[in-house]
Design a protein that fits this description.
Blueprint: H1 2-62, E1 66-69, E2 74-77, H2 84-93, E3 104-108, H3 111-114, E4 120-121, H4 123-127, E5 134-141, E6 144-153, E7 159-161, H5 163-172, E8 180-187, E9 195-202
Parallel strand pairs: 2-3, 5-9
Antiparallel strand pairs: 1-2, 3-8, 4-7, 5-6, 6-7, 8-9
């Protein structure tokens, strides 16, 4: 009887030891697993915060919204970011000479501008420049080889260039998607051209 009782007690003790070991290991593994999930969640949250502003900047650039800096007399596409080279060149070109009128427009050419040929000038820029309801502009890069392109005023007040001739002009002058440009405007002395549009590539 004594031996049987002792054996039973030993079995019970070892069962309890195994249960405690198993429970401790499960808790440890759960802690490690949850900890790794928490670390992953923090990392993803950090990456998400980095990605969101970039999307906002791209969408603002693509839809053609504009904001202005009246102290410099320029209007730029909302969300526009210039690199150091582009910004240095822009500062070297400003302010524009007295022959220019209205606001200068700083813009990074988009897929819509180049591939679809839908180049638009913001309402604020158009209102300060002698555009009419519709007509013809003389457009050039660096003031050389002007090309006549028709334009019209859209319902939202922006100036829209004729699609086919603008696409031909952009292709012939090497204007590409993501090219940053400074666009200035001059009054024209010709009867068949209302406004001279002069682009300067940045970078």
């Amino acid at each position: 009887m004594g031996e049987v009782g002792g054996s039973s007690m030993k079995t019970t003790i070892w069962a309890r030891v195994r249960w405690w070991c198993s429970t401790w290991m499960n808790l440890r593994l759960r802690h490690l697993f949850c900890g790794s999930r928490w670390a992953m969640a923090l990392k993803m949250n950090s990456l998400w915060k980095r990605v969101i502003p970039l999307k906002i900047q791209i969408s603002g650039n693509e839809d053609g919204e504009a904001s202005s800096d009246d102290s410099e007399g320029i209007v730029h596409t909302r969300g526009l970011l210039l690199n150091e080279t582009e910004d240095a060149q822009l500062q070297g070109l400003l302010p524009l000479s007295d022959g220019f009128v209205g606001f200068a427009f700083v813009h990074r050419l988009t897929r819509t501008d180049i591939r679809l040929g839908m180049m638009k000038i913001p309402k604020k820029v158009a209102a300060a420049t002698p555009f009419e309801e519709q007509g013809v502009v003389g457009i050039s890069v660096d003031g050389r080889r002007f090309k006549k392109i028709s334009y019209k005023t859209a319902d939202d007040g922006r100036i829209v260039f004729g699609r086919k001739k603008w696409k031909d002009f952009a292709a012939s002058r090497g204007l590409k998607v993501n090219t940053a440009v400074l666009i200035g405007f001059k009054s024209s002395e010709r009867d068949d051209v209302h406004v001279l549009v002069i682009l300067k590539k940045l970078g």
